[in-house]
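From the methods appendix. Each design record in this collection lists the discretized structure first, followed by the designed amino acid sequence. Records were kept in a plain field format so they could be parsed without special tools. The example shown here is representative of the layout used throughout.

RECORD:
C-ALPHA CELLS (728 positions):
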C-alpha cells in the first residue's frame, strides 16, 4: 500500500519503491512533517516531534507554552499565527488582514491520480500506478479550504504534489502566494543544486552550500526562462553521481516561478516552490477555486544519477503524451542555419533531397515562410504563406518533400505578434500591454494576449488551416521574447496581476487544442533554444530544442546540465556548420556528430555544399544513429565525467534490459606527453559478457564497471569516441 494512515498516532506514511514520506497530524489540528528519505517499512516514531518552550516563538491559540508553529516542521506553513519562517502561501482577506489559521478538516485516500484542470501534470494509465492522498485544511474565519494533494507513484519512485484553494465563503479573498509544495527538513546540511543559465548557455549545474537565511531562484520573465529552471535539489555535501542523498523538486510549470530555501535558527531547512509570488495575486471570489501547478518530488539515496533516471522515466512515460511518446524520433534536417530567411522553393527542395540521400527522414522548414518575413522585423501573426518565396504554397512544397519519401515539418511562433503585421494593424490591443505606456519590443515583437479567448481562437484557426492544408507531421513551436509591461486589456484592475499566470493557462489551452487535433504531428517546443525547457511544456510536446548554441563543445555542458532532470528523448541536438555560428569554433564533423547523436539527432547546415567525403561521414553517422537511437532515446542515462568538473566529458546509455549500451567520451584539449586514460562504465549486468563493437573486444560487465577500459590515445583538441556495446 503506497499510502497508509494510522489513526491512533494520526500518521500518514507514503511509500514509493525506495522512499518514505511521513506526516503527522499534531494536536489533531496542524499538519507536521516527520520524514522524507530512504524507505522504512514501519515508522514507529524514532524521531518523534519534541516540544519545549522556545523564547520568542509564540503559541497559537493555546496556553501550551511548548507549542509553536515557529518550531514545528510542517507540510504547508502559513504566516501570521506564530510561524515567522518563509510561508508556503499567503492570502489577503477582504478586510485587508493576511492572518490565517489552517487546521485539519478531513482526508481521503484513493487509487489513481486526477488531472489538474487547465494545467499540465503527470498522469497514470491505470489506477494501480499511483495512489492519492488529499488532506483538506480549513480556516474557520474565512472558510477557505486548502486541499493538499499527494500522488504516490510507487514504481516510478516519485511523489507528485499540488494544492487546490476553494473559497466557499461569502467573501472574496486574494491569494498572494501559493506554493505547490513545501518540505521542512530537520537539518540544513545540504548543498542547493540549481540550473541557472543564459541564452545559448542554458542549464549550468550550480552547487552552493546552504547558509542561514533565505536562498532562492526565480523567474520574473513570464516564462520559465534560460536564466533559471524550475528545478532545485537539496543534496548531502558528499553526494556523487552514484552515492549519497538528494531530494529533487521540479515544478511542472512554464511561467514565473520561485523556489526558496530558508535555513532557520535551529539549522532546519524549509524548501518551497511554486508560482512566483512577485507581481502576482489572484482574486478568489466566493465559490471560486484555484489550482496550483504540480511539483514532482524525487528522493534518491543513490546519488544524482539515480535521481535523474527517476525523473527521466517518469517524464518520458507519464508526463509526455501522444503518439510519439514511445516512438523513436526521426533524424531531421532543418534549414535555419543553412539559409536563415534567405531561401526559395528551389533551395529548400535541394536541401531536402540531399538530406534524403544522406538518410535523413524529416525536413523542417524554419522561420521565414509566411507573411513578408525576410528578417525578424515583422509578420508574426500573419500565418499565411509568402507566395514570393513559395509561389506554389506550403501544400505543394509539403507534397514535394513527401514525394522524396521524407516527412515534412514547419516552424511557427504562435504566441507572438509583430508590430509590423496585418494582425497588429487590425488588432493593436491584442498584445500584452498596459494602457498609456509604451510597448517594449524584444526581437521586434510583442506577446499576444493569450489570456483572451478571442485571441486564442483566432491564432488556433490560423494554425489549424495551415496544418490541415499540407502533409505536415512535425511542428517547431518557438517563443522568442520575455514579458514586459505585463497587463491585459480585458482584465479588471484587481486582476491585472493575474495576467502572467492567465497567459500561461492560455498557452496551455492553445497547446492542448492544437496537439489534440493533430495527434500525428510530432511537436518540438523552443524558446530561443532552451528558454522553456521545463516539464510543463513537455506535457504537450515531447521534444524541446535544447539551445540555439549548436557548437559541439558548448553543447557538452548544455546537454549534461539538462540531463540532470530531463530525458534524452526530449533533447533536440543538431550538427551545424563550422566555424560555428554562435561561438565561431572549428570542430570536426566527428565530434559534432557524436554530440548531436547524444540526443535527438538533426542536421542544420547547407548539405548541398558538402564535399563527397563529408557526405560520406554524415550518411555514416545517420546510419549508425538509426542503429543506436532506441538506446539513446529510451535507455537509462549515466553521466560518467562532468564538463563542469573536468576538461573531459563522458556519458553512457544502457537499454532497459541491459543488453545494449552506447558510451560517448569527449576530450576537450590535447596535451603534450599526456597520461593514458581509461573509463569505467555503469549500469551493465555484472555477470554478462559484452562486446565493444568498435574495439572488437569482449569483457564481462563487472570488469567494464570496476576496472574500466583503456581509451585510445586521442591527439589534439575536441576529440571524441563513441562505442556501441552488446551483450553476447
Ligand atoms: C529561435 C530558434 O531557437 C531558432 O532555432 C530558430 O528557429 C529561430 N528562432 C527562428 O527565428
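DESIGN:
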Amino acid at each position: 500500500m503506497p499510502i497508509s494512515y494510522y489513526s491512533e498516532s494520526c500518521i500518514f506514511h507514503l511509500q514509493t519503491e525506495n522512499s518514505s514520506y511521513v506526516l503527522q497530524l499534531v494536536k489533531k489540528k496542524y499538519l507536521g512533517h516527520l520524514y522524507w528519505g530512504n524507505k522504512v517499512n514501519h515508522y514507529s516514531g524514532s524521531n518523534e516531534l519534541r516540544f519545549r518552550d522556545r523564547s520568542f516563538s509564540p503559541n497559537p491559540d493555546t496556553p501550551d507554552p511548548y507549542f509553536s508553529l515557529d518550531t514545528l516542521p510542517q507540510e504547508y506553513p502559513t504566516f501570521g499565527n506564530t510561524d515567522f519562517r518563509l510561508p508556503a502561501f499567503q492570502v489577503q482577506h477582504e478586510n485587508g488582514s493576511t492572518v490565517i489559521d489552517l487546521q485539519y478538516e478531513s482526508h481521503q485516500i484513493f487509487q489513481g491520480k486526477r488531472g489538474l484542470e487547465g494545467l499540465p501534470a503527470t498522469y497514470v494509465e491505470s489506477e494501480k500506478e499511483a495512489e492519492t492522498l488529499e488532506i483538506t485544511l480549513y480556516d474557520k474565519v474565512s472558510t477557505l479550504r486548502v486541499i493538499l494533494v499527494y500522488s504516490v507513484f510507487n514504481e516510478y519512485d516519485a511523489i507528485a504534489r499540488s494544492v487546490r484553494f476553494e473559497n466557499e465563503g461569502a467573501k472574496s479573498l486574494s491569494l498572494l502566494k501559493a506554493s505547490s509544495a513545501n518540505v521542512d527538513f530537520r537539518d540544513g546540511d545540504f548543498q542547493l543544486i540549481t540550473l541557472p543559465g543564459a541564452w545559448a548557455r542554458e542549464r549550468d549545474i550550480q552547487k552552493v552550500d546552504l547558509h542561514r537565511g533565505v536562498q532562492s531562484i526565480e523567474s520574473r520573465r513570464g516564462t520559465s526562462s534560460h536564466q533559471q529552471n524550475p528545478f532545485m535539489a537539496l543534496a548531502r555535501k558528499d553526494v556523487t553521481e552514484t552515492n549519497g542523498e538528494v531530494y529533487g523538486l521540479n515544478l511542472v510549470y512554464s511561467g514565473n516561478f520561485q523556489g526558496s530555501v530558508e535555513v532557520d535558527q535551529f539549522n532546519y531547512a524549509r524548501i518551497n516552490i511554486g508560482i512566483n509570488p512577485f507581481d502576482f495575486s489572484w482574486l478568489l471570489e466566493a465559490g471560486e477555486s484555484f489550482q496550483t501547478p504540480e511539483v514532482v518530488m524525487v528522493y534518491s539515496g543513490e546519488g544524482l544519477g539515480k535521481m535523474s533516471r527517476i525523473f527521466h522515466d517518469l517524464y518520458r512515460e507519464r508526463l509526455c503524451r501522444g503518439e510519439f511518446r514511445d516512438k523513436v524520433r526521426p533524424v531531421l534536417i532543418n534549414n535555419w542555419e543553412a539559409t536563415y530567411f534567405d531561401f526559395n522553393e528551389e533551395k529548400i527542395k535541394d536541401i531536402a533531397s540531399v538530406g534524403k540521400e544522406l538518410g535523413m527522414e524529416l525536413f523542417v522548414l524554419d522561420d521565414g515562410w509566411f507573411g513578408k518575413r525576410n528578417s525578424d522585423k515583422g509578420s508574426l501573426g500573419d500565418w499565411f504563406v509568402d507566395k514570393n518565396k513559395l509561389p506554389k504554397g506550403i501544400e505543394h512544397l509539403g507534397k514535394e518533400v513527401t514525394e522524396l519519401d521524407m516527412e515534412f515539418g514547419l516552424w511557427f511562433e504562435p504566441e507572438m505578434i509583430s508590430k509590423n503585421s496585418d494582425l497588429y494593424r487590425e488588432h493593436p490591443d491584442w498584445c500584452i500591454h498596459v494602457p498609456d505606456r509604451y510597448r517594449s519590443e524584444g526581437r521586434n515583437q510583442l506577446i499576444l494576449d493569450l489570456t483572451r479567448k478571442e485571441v486564442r481562437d483566432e491564432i488556433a484557426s490560423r494554425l489549424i488551416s495551415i496544418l490541415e492544408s499540407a502533409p505536415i507531421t512535425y511542428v517547431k513551436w518557438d517563443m522568442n521574447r520575455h514579458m514586459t509591461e505585463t497587463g491585459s486589456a480585458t482584465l479588471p484592475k484587481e486582476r491585472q496581476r493575474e495576467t502572467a499566470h492567465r497567459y500561461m493557462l492560455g498557452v496551455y489551452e492553445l497547446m492542448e487544442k492544437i496537439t489534440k487535433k493533430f495527434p500525428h504531428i510530432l511537436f518540438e517546443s523552443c524558446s530561443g533554444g532552451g528558454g522553456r525547457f521545463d516539464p510543463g511544456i513537455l506535457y504537450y510536446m515531447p521534444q524541446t530544442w535544447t539551445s540555439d548554441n549548436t557548437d559541439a563543445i558548448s553543447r557538452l555542458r548544455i546537454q549534461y546540465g539538462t540531463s540532470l532532470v530531463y530525458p534524452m528523448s526530449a533533447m533536440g541536438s543538431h550538427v551545424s556548420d563550422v566555424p560555428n555560428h554562435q561561438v565561431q569554433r572549428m570542430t570536426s564533423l566527428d565530434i559534432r556528430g557524436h554530440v548531436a547523436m547524444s540526443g535527438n539527432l538533426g542536421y542544420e547546415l547547407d548539405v548541398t555544399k558538402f564535399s563527397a567525403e563529408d557526405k560520406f561521414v554524415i550518411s555514416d553517422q545517420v546510419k549508425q544513429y538509426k542503429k543506436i537511437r532506441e538506446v539513446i532515446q529510451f535507455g537509462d542515462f549515466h553521466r560518467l565525467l562532468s564538463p563542469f568538473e573536468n576538461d573531459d566529458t563522458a556519458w553512457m546509455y544502457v537499454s532497459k534490459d541491459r543488453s545494449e549500451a552506447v558510451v560517448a567520451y569527449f576530450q576537450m584539449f590535447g596535451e603534450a606527453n599526456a597520461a593514458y586514460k581509461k573509463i569505467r562504465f555503469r549500469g551493465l549486468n555484472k555477470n554478462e559478457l559484452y562486446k565493444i563493437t568498435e574495439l572488437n573486444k569482449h569483457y564481462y560487465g563487472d570488469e567494464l564497471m570496476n576496472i574500466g577500459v583503456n581509451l585510445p590515445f586521442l591527439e589534439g583538441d575536441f576529440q571524441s569516441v563513441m562505442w556501441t556495446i552488446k551483450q553476447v
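APPENDIX NOTE: The chain has a mean pLDDT of 98.
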